[in-house]
User: Fold this.
Amino acid sequence: MPSHTGDHARRTAGEEAAEKAAAEAARRRRERQRSAAALGRYGERLAVRRLREAGLAVLDRNWRCAEGELDIVAREDAPAGGRSAGPVVVVCEVKTRRAGGPQHPMAGVGPAKAERLRRLAARWLAERWLPAHGSPPPGGVRIDLIGVLLPDRGPAVVQHARGAA
Assistant:
């Protein structure tokens, strides 16, 4: 008669190996998430620097509500072209990628994301701008995309697309 003890030990060893593999996969997933979050924060710092160099004032960073998050909200007092009647609120979506990745950062906002950004911008205006100013920004609202590409060597490449969404 076969011993059930050996079968049990083999099954337990197999279960133990599966648990170790699952724990290792979870650890790698957490590390990738931390790395992606750090990459995103770095890209946002570069984007803020670029906006300030262009003369924009940063009003809010990483603003969150139940519907989502806005990376950067800024104010542009004298937009390029001078067609504005006053300050423009600029909502900036920042996409940061490493060189050689599957998608260029400037390709990171599709129609669904653009619509979501418009909804979030309206909510930000209602919760932050209107209580402080009493009326919408005279120059309106613009949604920009800032792409940050990190090459293997050399400085980051930062691109700013105005009115991208």
